[in-house]
Amino acid sequence: MGEVWIDAGSAAGAGALAGWLRRDPSVARAGVEIEPAGTGTAPAGAPGSAAGMGTVETVTAVVDGAVGVLSLLVAVAAWRRPRATPPPVVRVIENDGTVLEGTVEDVLRTVRARGEREQTST
């Protein structure tokens, strides 16, 4: 699949989200790699990026396949649910260059719908 950038809105939020994702068993089973908050370099246009510079508000994940993306997005939605924070902006950059961007819920719906279309076409 590629890389996923999640703008948690603050350095504290990014640290909390990164820790949550590292502890989530479904994320671990899917082989998703979570980079420490603020250590990645966001591509130009990624959430929280400024001309391609890294940001402490962004959590970066490397995923391999749709299962990894789904596991990651479900875990992000679960992290956000009890918090009174605005929905994080998520940007998924797939290996073929396709970009999906929006709230975690919007991107999750898109990935699920794509998976359902692929299942019915095979």
List the topology elements.
Layout lengths: L1 E6 L3 H13 L1 H5 L3 E2 L23 E6 L2 H15 L8 E6 L4 E5 H18 L1
Antiparallel strand pairs: 1-3, 1-4, 2-3, 4-5
Helix pairs in contact: 3-4
Short descriptors:
single chain; 122 residues; alpha+beta; 5-stranded antiparallel sheet; 4 helices; 5 strands; 20% strand
Note the total helix count.
4
Main sheet summary: 5 strands, antiparallel
- The outline comes out as globular
The rounded Rg comes to 13 Å
Unreliable runs? 47-54
Structural notes for this entry:
With 122 residues, this protein is of the alpha+beta class. It contains four helices and five strands; from the N terminus they run E-H-H-E-E-H-E-E-H. The protein has a five-stranded antiparallel sheet. A hairpin with a 4-residue loop joins strand 4 (89-94) and strand 5. The longest helix has 18 residues, at 104-121. The protein is globular. The chain starts with a strand and ends with a helix.
Tell me briefly what this model is.
The protein is of the alpha+beta class.
